[in-house]
Each structure stands twice: as C-alpha cells, then as structure tokens.
Specification:
Length: 98
C-alpha cells in the first residue's frame, strides 16, 4: 500500500486543449509502412512550459488527480480535450508514468 501523500502543483498558464495531431506515413526500404504521430508545435511548447511548474515524481501506482481550470474567456471547451492535455503534461514531464 502506498502512503497518502498529497502533491499540489499550480500551472500558471492559460489552459490549452489538445490540438490536432498530424499523421504521416513513412515507408522503409522493405515496403513496410509506419504511421508516425506528430504533435503540433504549440502542444509541444505548452507541455514544455507547463513542465516548469512540475516536479518529476515518477509515480508508477494509481493516483487520483484533481484539476481546476481557470479560463479568462467565455469560450467553450471540450472537457476531454483539456484532460488529455493535462495527462500528456504529467506523463511527458515524468510526474506520472505511462
């Protein structure tokens, strides 16, 4: 059983939804095709900037994550896209393991 520690992070950036993903198909010399998933440049930049507010905890056990989004507009967001971006931020910055 894991200890009941609480880690709290505040990412002082405007929340961003997961952007469009570019797919490219590459063929090697043996006529095998691979699909390569490419993130948008804006997504990569956001993930890197958000990492400045996080600690690499490398958590490898199940956790509960509570997220509060503060937005500066009345624009509508799809919640699933916000949550996917937070998940990507936590994984890419080694807070949690995939």
């Amino acid at each position: 059983m894991h200890n009941n520690t609480v880690s709290q992070f505040t990412i002082r950036l405007v929340p961003k939804t997961k952007g469009k993903i570019n797919l490219s198909i590459k063929s090697d010399s043996k006529n095998n095709s691979r699909i390569q998933v490419m993130r948008s440049r804006e997504d990569k930049t956001y993930i890197k900037e958000a990492g400045n507010y996080l600690k690499p905890l490398r958590i490898s056990y199940p956790v509960n994550v509570k997220v509060l989004f503060y937005v500066d507009s009345h624009r509508r967001f799809k919640l699933v896209n916000l949550l996917q971006m937070i998940s990507d931020v936590l994984i890419k910055n080694s807070v949690i393991c995939d």
